[in-house]
Specification:
The chain has 375 residues and is α+β, with helices and mostly antiparallel strands. The protein folds into three domains: 47 residues, Alpha-Beta Plaits, CATH 3.30.70.20; 197 residues, no CATH class; 97 residues, no CATH class. It is 31% helix and 21% strand. The strands form three sheets. It has an eight-stranded mixed sheet with strand order 5-4-6-7-11-12-3-13, sandwiched between helices. It has a three-stranded antiparallel sheet with strand order 8-9-10, with no helix packed on it. It starts with 14 loop residues before the first helix and ends with a helix. The protein binds flavin-adenine dinucleotide. Flavin-adenine dinucleotide binds next to helix 4, strand 4, strand 6 and strand 11.
Length: 375
C-alpha cells in the first residue's frame, strides 16, 4: 500500500479518499478487519493532496471548552430511542425540519455501518442510537461540501477522527455547518463483528439491532437483536453480550484508537456529546435512569445550537464530565492480549472472546477487595 500516513495513526477518516482529484484511493480491509486507504498507482499523479489533508499527520491544536452541560432531550419518546440523553436527535431534528441535511451513521442491509445523509425525519431515525462498529465515510465529505457551497444548512455528526477528517477536507469554516462529535472510546474490528453476527444469527433474519436498549434502564442497558417481525432473538445486559464484552475490554479496537489524535477539541468540532456517567454524585436531577448526555461546547455556534434545541440542561465544570468518562480526554489502553487475539485469530470468535475476557478467580477476589475499599 502507498503510504499516505503512518499506518498506526490512520483512523480511516477517509479525508484522503474524498480529496483525491483522480479517485485513485479506496478503502480496503486488512486481515484484522480494519479499513485502510489503498492507492492505485496506475492512476495516482503524486499531487500530495492526500498526505496534506491527513489529520493524523497534521493534527489541530488542543482547545478548551467554552461551556459544558448535563443535558437531555425534552421529548420522552425521542429520549427512549437514543443511546444516552438524545441530544443528537434534538439538534438534528431542527435541521431536517427546516430544509437542512444531517450526516451520521446508519446500519446497511448487511448490518454493517455507513455514513449517510438524512433529509427527513424518517431518514433521521436510522441515525439515532450508537452503533459500536466503525462507520464507513464513503463520499459524504464531498456531498457535505457540495451542499454547503449551495448554501444549505448541514449538521455533520461522527466520531472525533471523522470530524477531524471532514474539517481537514473542507479546509475552511462554513457558517452553515454544525459539527457534532460523538465521544468515542474506540471502534472495534469489522471482521470480529461480522463473524460474531454470522456465528449467532442469519443476517436475513435480523430486523433491528440496538446496542443501547433502555428497557432495564440507561445504566443497565441491554444489547438487543430482533427479527424482522420484531421478536427478540437475543437480549442481554451489556456485560453479558459477548461482542460488547470484548469491545469494552478493548480486545479488538482499531490500533489508532489507542493513540487518538482528535480528542480534547482537536477534532475541530463545534460540540461534543457523550454519556454523563456518574452525574448522580453531583445532582439528583436526571436521576430517573432514562439517560443524560455530557455536552461540551467548543464554539459559540455549538452553544447557540444547543440553546435553540428543545433540551433540558444544567451547567457543569468540564472536570465533572471527565471524572467517570476518561475517553473524553484520553485514549484507552489495549487489552494485554490484543496482539495474540489477532495473531492467532480463529473461529468461533464468540468462544475466543469468552476465553480472552475470562476473569481468573484471583482477579475476581482482587476486584472484590478493590470495590469494598472504594466503598
Ligand atoms: C464507537 C463508539 C464509542 C463510544 N464511546 C463512548 C465513550 O467511551 N464515552 C461516551 O461518553 N460516549 C461514547 N459514545 C457515544 C455514546 O454512545 C452516544 O452516542 C452519545 O452519548 C450521544 O448520545 P445521544 O443519545 O445524543 O445520541 P444517539 O441517538 O444515541 O446517537 C446517534 C449519534 O451517534 C452517531 N453514531 C452512531 N454510531 C456511530 C458510529 N459507529 N460512528 C460514528 N457515529 C456514530 C450517529 O450518527 C448520531 O450522530 C460512543 C459512541 C460510539 C459510536
Amino acid at each position: 500500500m502507498h503510504s499516505i500516513c503512518h499506518i498506526e495513526k490512520c483512523s480511516a477518516c477517509s479525508a484522503c479518499v474524498n480529496i483525491c482529484p483522480l479517485n485513485a484511493i479506496s478503502m480496503q480491509e486488512d486481515k484484522d478487519g480494519f479499513m485502510y486507504p489503498a492507492v492505485d498507482n496506475t492512476v495516482c499523479i503524486n499531487c500530495g493532496k492526500c498526505t496534506k489533508v491527513c489529520p493524523a499527520e497534521n493534527p489541530y491544536e488542543k482547545r478548551d471548552s467554552i461551556i459544558c452541560y448535563a443535558a437531555r432531550n425534552d421529548n420522552s419518546e425521542d429520549l427512549a430511542k437514543s443511546s444516552s440523553g438524545g441530544i443528537f436527535y434534538s439538534l438534528a431534528k431542527h435541521y431536517v425540519e427546516t430544509g437542512g441535511h444531517v450526516f451520521g451513521a446508519a446500519f446497511d442491509s448487511k448490518w454493517e455501518v455507513q455514513h449517510v445523509k438524512a433529509s427527513s425525519i424518517t431518514e433521521l431515525k436510522a441515525l439515532q442510537g450508537s452503533k459500536y462498529i466503525q462507520s464507513k465515510i464513503g463520499n459524504t465529505f464531498r456531498e457535505t461540501e457540495e451542499l454547503l457551497k449551495k448554501g444549505k444548512n448541514v449538521l455533520f455528526s461522527g466520531t472525533s477522527c471523522q470530524i477531524a477528517g471532514l474539517m481537514h477536507f473542507l479546509g475552511k469554516e462554513y457558517e452553515n455547518l454544525l459539527t457534532v462529535e460523538i465521544i468515542c472510546h474506540g471502534v472495534p474490528s469489522g471482521k470480529v463483528w461480522r463473524d460474531y453476527l454470522s456465528e449467532n444469527f442469519s443476517t436475513d433474519q435480523i430486523g433491528n439491532i440496538s446496542f443501547r436498549d433502555k428497557r432495564k434502564g440507561w445504566t443497565n442497558f441491554m444489547v438487543c437483536i430482533n427479527d424482522t417481525n420484531g421478536a427478540l432473538l437475543s437480549g442481554k445486559k451489556y456485560t453479558e453480550n459477548i461482542f460488547f464484552k470484548g469491545f469494552l475490554k478493548n480486545l479488538y479496537l482499531r490500533p489508532s484508537c489507542h493513540n487518538c489524535e482528535a480528542k480534547q477539541g482537536k477534532s475541530g468540532c463545534d460540540i461534543a456529546i457523550g454519556d454523563f456517567w456518574g452525574l448522580e454524585k453531583h445532582t439528583s436531577d436526571f436521576s430517573d435512569d432514562k439517560g443524560v448526555c455530557a455536552v461540551i461546547c467548543y464554539t459559540q455556534k455549538g452553544k447557540d445550537a444547543l440553546d435553540k434545541a428543545k433540551v433540558i440542561k444544567q451547567v457543569f465544570p468540564y472536570e465533572t464530565l471527565v471524572e467517570r468518562n476518561s475517553p473524553i480526554e484520553r485514549s484507552v489502553k489495549p487489552h494485554p492480549k490484543r496482539e495474540i487475539f489477532f495473531a492467532e485469530y480463529s473461529q468461533p470468535v464468540s468462544k475466543r472472546i469468552a476465553d480472552f475476557t475470562k476473569v481468573s478467580f484471583v482477579q475476581r477476589v482482587i476486584n472484590k477487595i478493590k470495590r469494598i475499599i472504594k466503598k
